[in-house]
Amino acid sequence: MTSSAPGSRSPVRLQAVPGAGQPDVTPALEDLYRGFEKELLVPLWTQIGDLMPLHPQSRALPHLWRWENLRALAAQAGELVPVGRGGERRAIALANPGLEGRAFATPTLWAAIQYLMPGENAPEHRHTQHAFRFVLEGEGVWTVVGGDPVAMRRGDFLPQAGWNWHAHHNATSEPMAWIDGLDIPLQYLTEAQFFEFGRDEISGAERTTPERSRSERLWGYPGLSPLAPQARPATPGSPLLAYRWEQTDRALADQLAIEKEGFGGTVEPGHAAVRYTDPATGGDVLPTIRVEFHRIARGAETAPVRETGSSVYCVFDGSGTVTAGEQTWSVTRGDLFVVPSWQPFSVRSEAGATDSDARAIDLFRFSDSPVFEALRLNRTALAGPEGNVT
Amino acid sequence: MTSSAPGSRSPVRLQAVPGAGQPDVTPALEDLYRGFEKELLVPLWTQIGDLMPLHPQSRALPHLWRWENLRALAAQAGELVPVGRGGERRAIALANPGLEGRAFATPTLWAAIQYLMPGENAPEHRHTQHAFRFVLEGEGVWTVVGGDPVAMRRGDFLPQAGWNWHAHHNATSEPMAWIDGLDIPLQYLTEAQFFEFGRDEISGAERTTPERSRSERLWGYPGLSPLAPQARPATPGSPLLAYRWEQTDRALADQLAIEKEGFGGTVEPGHAAVRYTDPATGGDVLPTIRVEFHRIARGAETAPVRETGSSVYCVFDGSGTVTAGEQTWSVTRGDLFVVPSWQPFSVRSEAGATDSDARAIDLFRFSDSPVFEALRLNRTALAGPEGNVT
Amino acid sequence: MTSSAPGSRSPVRLQAVPGAGQPDVTPALEDLYRGFEKELLVPLWTQIGDLMPLHPQSRALPHLWRWENLRALAAQAGELVPVGRGGERRAIALANPGLEGRAFATPTLWAAIQYLMPGENAPEHRHTQHAFRFVLEGEGVWTVVGGDPVAMRRGDFLPQAGWNWHAHHNATSEPMAWIDGLDIPLQYLTEAQFFEFGRDEISGAERTTPERSRSERLWGYPGLSPLAPQARPATPGSPLLAYRWEQTDRALADQLAIEKEGFGGTVEPGHAAVRYTDPATGGDVLPTIRVEFHRIARGAETAPVRETGSSVYCVFDGSGTVTAGEQTWSVTRGDLFVVPSWQPFSVRSEAGATDSDARAIDLFRFSDSPVFEALRLNRTALAGPEGNVT
Amino acid sequence: MTSSAPGSRSPVRLQAVPGAGQPDVTPALEDLYRGFEKELLVPLWTQIGDLMPLHPQSRALPHLWRWENLRALAAQAGELVPVGRGGERRAIALANPGLEGRAFATPTLWAAIQYLMPGENAPEHRHTQHAFRFVLEGEGVWTVVGGDPVAMRRGDFLPQAGWNWHAHHNATSEPMAWIDGLDIPLQYLTEAQFFEFGRDEISGAERTTPERSRSERLWGYPGLSPLAPQARPATPGSPLLAYRWEQTDRALADQLAIEKEGFGGTVEPGHAAVRYTDPATGGDVLPTIRVEFHRIARGAETAPVRETGSSVYCVFDGSGTVTAGEQTWSVTRGDLFVVPSWQPFSVRSEAGATDSDARAIDLFRFSDSPVFEALRLNRTALAGPEGNVT
Predict the structure, then answer these.
(1) Residues with Cβ < 8 Å from B238, sequence gap 6 or more?
(2) Which of B302, C38, C372, D365 has the fewest Cβ atoms within 10 Å of its own Cβ atom?
């Protein structure tokens, strides 16, 4: 007798199929499989190829979304879909074609375009999901995190670690769009989520539009940490709420200049990159999401690499050619694409018809690497010209 | 233009439904939703209740599997299903009724009964999935880990951290069954898996049946670590390959005795518990799986607790009553059950008709807690009498 | 028979003295003590008050050195003492009056004024001692660390973690003085030191005088870490070789402004402070030395605090009154003073005869706190008005 | 004007001496040096050879103390010196001949013989100094740590982390001696010490003489940690208060047996060794002291090694030949010796006139290595036949 309700139909369905490592298909085997189904059991030998592959075989597919399409649909949603309590945010998520239409860019990562109309407010809430915003274009929205208004402008990266109260308000007469990244799929799969509604309206003082947030004034100086105990973050994740484009841009330019001077400084020739880090720990800016910015100089190209874990990229500027698994795309400003686990990945900046047409390409990237490192599941390998591991 | 092949049908399906936080259902909204589908986009406002619940709402269900049924089916499989290259192991996994018939006990954990006939050999392989064996009954199989034969006997816990070569051989004339625990679902969902085939046959020297493995002789002394560099584990996870029942049993008995002497020592009155740890770090025995053994003394009962993350329990001995979410079961030796994330859980040992009928209950437990702690997503709360968080 | 050479005189000298916890002084006891001396033994009971006091009783004394005196003597040394191989550096160290004339500012810390004449070069070497430079006045010297020339200007803090090659050259026609801090006493006492001579002359390329060092261009952006593997430091300690005054000054001003706006940000009212940190770890800038900068606003005063471990302070700007143990000093720009372990310490900024005379005081501080924290020996307590622990 | 009292004599004494790296000795230089003395300053160039040597030049000397002499003097002290409040303990410390007669075995470590007469009690106290006991011979004393009586027998190692209350009582009619190890010199030099007197008399319940302490019943099972929150240590250092000789002896025998079977297991041929570790962390048993036990098999010999940091060894059993720096000693049961920082060290077990005379040698060792590792100052090198670094 099982503990299942009588008459309930088991969700387990097993089919006896001949093959290597499979038992002979006999009436006795069929009986056994019916017994398994009744008792909610699944034998390893029918599943092992799927569950324990020789290397990651991602269900997610490499896929590209064009910014112009996303933006147009988001603007259309701006007219039709209100922002308020219940729906909470006017955010439209990438749904990887390999993941059954779920709002998952990859098995662990969420990526969306969020859109706020002039004068609109997104109500306050908090959740355990770790989040960030990255601004591709426009400005005028302030995100208010724990009562601290933070300006959002092109190129800015704004982390939002889990369980911090936050709201957004558009202080201008123009709509504004940006990219949201979260670990919603990971927390959905592991079932870790908590969510709490905050105030419907933030206070007048929180609606101010300061040039610099208090978090930047406390934590935005390189290598200088405030001693004040209340300046230390109570929750995991970076206490610095904005990483400004001017800094990122100059850091990348410096790396390329140092390379030219003959002192290295780049990941590989013509490939500058920074990681956004938590100034209080030097570690990843969010416990479950790694965020980086890569610049591939004119005429440069990255070595094809495979990594465990998945990434979402956004072309911030320039254009070039991207190869992800068996896909190759010409990409340009605003395009978003996904690289699944262990798929070989490389980028080439725009060659141009003439030398003066050539352009660098700037790529914003986020991934689930901190999860793999924390669980000691991370691996990296160079991929050969045909994508073979070398 | 999207990058999808022309004529391909989008996996995204959106339905406009009126409701709190939802936009008005108009032809324009329907148009917008068709645009989303075409571009592989999903709006947050149609999904937020599922993706971002107020607290974890596990898809997995509390469920109980009876040992007698598992064992009978495993014995039947022993007659019909060969063990060898391809199928690799005669392991039969618990399939949680809430998880669509997949071989997943919980969203992150795999639990199976494995069965080896007299004289049989399970061929060598290795994989990144972290694994362990726990012996409910019988003996006679040696698991050979990195060339070190390790005896398996009732009550023994045998961790098997990822990427170690391992094979099993039954050195006796009796079949033997045991429980396998792995993080197969977690690695499947995050897409981290690697697998490699080893030798079909291990050497004669590896078929010996020593009382104690080399790992126990190097790492099995309390608080004493070998200095020899090659004794240090190269891979994450415990270098101690067997935790013997005699030790576990005595540790639990000691805790209850110290409690009686008036000095605490137990988790709560009548509730002794140990965690299996890596002697080289003091941390969890496996990077993704926490393993514990709990003894609830006669007449004792645990406080109902909720935790993020899921657990699988096995009744090692005794009997009692278990409450998991809204389920209550009488459980006895060998029964296996699952407690999903954030479901209140408590155990009561067998009261018995008379005092002398009362019995303690011994529970072996494994969970995904190390994942939640590493990602800083762990939460615990006492649950009130009706299962409310207090 | 002891292993001492015959006739050698034992360094142990014991005196039998009556007192609490002391044995009766008898001829037998005198015999025993002579036996101890012969065998190189010392009984605890004659020493316990000195070795195991109720709380730290520092041998070091609070002491103040006036900058004008240091500077004058350093200038005089500039005329008389050459800089070159052997003597290595024209550095003149503070000798705490309680430490027997040794060149130790405190039991663990070294503090010195270093002086370089126009055009002079201090030859290259490296050592395990962790070091830093802090510039009180002047400019024109470049310190060349691992081949990277780093400018030194008023207010700049320049860490120099152990075992990095370094040389200095004065590129101007003016002499320049600065403050050196090292853990020489700690490494002397624990006997951990290694030292290696480098090139007598650095190359022409290393004599350039860039505005920004390569280390600043790689590591000087807040929250941005270079991905290039060779940018990661090979030795412990910060890869950022200069922390510029403009940043420190603005960070302190921001903290005081945030306090005025009503949002905290300071350690206590009117007391802003930053810690110099390693951007790769968020931890202390050097493994054995903590470095901080404190600003006490006009009219403000710090609460008296005791801490295990010792500190050296330098008045960078302004003036005020300092209390260290039983000493109280009026201090002004350039003055250096020492606070021994567990001595109560507080600062008051200059009150001024009129409000407009009042001034803030800026204090540069370094301490051995990382040692105490690593060994888990750190304690802090508020001290009462009479310096009592409250 | 200096801050020194007028007329006070400066402890600084400088002598102008000609030599490499030294300034010319002129009247002006003498004037300068007098100025330094007056201002409590010491120039680096007169000190650098002593303070910053090319490698550690220990002030401590290799030295050997014979157990028979220590024991005889301790017994004599048993007759003459009372144990009680004030003197606290009848402990007699090794005074390294290079350390000016101080009760320091090495610059950081204290080693003493402690002696307790029949029926005697050593009163309760606690201190931040980390301590342990190691029993060379005899039994009958129970050390009571935090109210938990712990038996002491030959070969047992008993750690005593800082700030735990402890007392000892001799429950037999025989005197007992044992070895105490502490970090008294380290805490004296860094000035970190706190000390508190406890009860003069412990309770009757604490005078019981159980075979096993509660700490062993909670933490003495290999790889099993109690879940009870109050079983977790509140202070740094191991919660396991006794490491029994039977375990240590068997662990060493197992390593040598595994080596014979062809599987390594030893540090080098014939050299078995274990480190005592904190089962809650896998790290060193005490934050500032590393403790190990080494067995050199018959006919075996260790490679000469240099390490930063100092060690104290005790010959627990057997005999052999020890080389420490330029000293070579024949050592036997009970002998204690010191190896200073960076001095080459090796051991050879007793060869014997005939093969059957040959004996293994068992060495108990403690060192300050955790300090060097925490501060990242640790280095190790093989020393050549003449003690040169190779």
Answers:
(1) B159, B161, B219, B276, B277, B278, B279, B280, B285, B286, D223
(2) C38
Burial C76-112 (b: 16+ CB within 10 A, else e): bbbeebebbeebbbbbbbbbbbbbebbbbbbbbbbbb
Give the three-state DSSP class for A296: strand
Q: Which residues of D touch B277 (CB under 8 A)?
A: 223-225, 279
pLDDT of chain C, 390 residues: tens digit per residue: 334 444 457 899 999 988 888 999 999 999 999 999 999 999 999 999 999 999 999 999 999 999 999 999 999 999 999 999 988 999 999 999 999 999 999 999 999 999 999 999 999 999 999 999 999 999 999 999 999 999 999 999 999 999 999 999 999 999 999 999 999 999 999 999 999 999 999 999 999 999 999 999 999 999 999 999 888 777 889 999 999 999 999 999 999 999 999 999 999 999 999 999 999 999 999 999 999 999 999 999 999 999 999 999 999 999 999 999 999 999 999 999 999 999 999 999 988 777 777 789 999 999 999 999 999 999 999 986 544 443
Flag whether residue C331 sits within 8 Å of chain D, measured between CB atoms: no
Chains A and C lie in contact, requiring 3 or more CB pairs less than 8 Å apart: yes
Contact B36 A73 (CB under 8 A): yes
Residue appearing with tokens 């970090």 = D183
For B59, half-sphere exposure in the C-beta direction (CA atoms, 13 angstrom radius) is 18
State the angle between helix axes of B27-38 and A67-80 in degrees (0 to 180), rounded to the nearest 10: 160
Pull the structure tokens for residue B258.
């110290």
Give the nearest chain C residue to D27 (CA atoms): C80
Could you tell me which residues are beta bridge partners of residue B167?
A: B144
Total length of chain A: 390
CA atoms of C186 and C127, how far apart (whole Å): 14
Nearest-Cα distance to chain B for D97, in Å, is 31
Return the residue in B17, B55, B110, B191 with the most chain A beta carbons within 10 A, the one to mutate for interface testing: B191
Residue B174 in 3-state DSSP? coil
> Longest Cα pair distance anywhere in chain C, in angstroms?
77
Residue closest to D191 by CA, chosen among C363, C372, B322, B289? C372
- Chain B within 8 Å of D365 (Cβ-Cβ)? no
Q: pLDDT for D274-286, tens place per residue?
A: 999 999 999 999 9
Q: Which residues pair with B272 in a beta bridge?
A: B295
Residue C15 sits at the vertex; the CA angle it makes with C14 and C18, to the nearest 5 degrees, is 135
Distance CA A257, CA B11 (A): 46
Question: Rg of the Cα trace of chain C?
Answer: 24
pTM: 0.95
Which tens digits make up the pLDDT trace of A340-364? 999 999 999 988 777 777 789 999 9
- The phi and psi torsions of C209 (rounded to 5 degrees) equal -125, 65
pLDDT, residue B384, reads 66
Helix (H) or strand (E) holding A181: strand A176-182
- Token pair of D135, please? 């029993």
Note whether C192 contacts D128, CB cutoff 8 Å.
Answer: no
Distance CA A315, CA A363 (A): 5
Window 85-124 of D, Cβ < 8 Å to B: none
Long-range (24+ apart) CB contacts under 8 A made by A33-38 are A35/B73, A35/B76, A36/A12, A36/B73, A36/B92, A37/A10, A37/A12, A37/A13, A38/A2, A38/A10
Q: How far is residue B76's CA from residue B73's CA, in Å, rounded to a whole number?
A: 5
Residues in chain A predicted with pLDDT less than 50, given as ranges, are 1-7, 386-390
Q: Pull the structure tokens for residue A216.
A: 């930047």
- CB of C216 closer than 8 Å to CB of A250: no
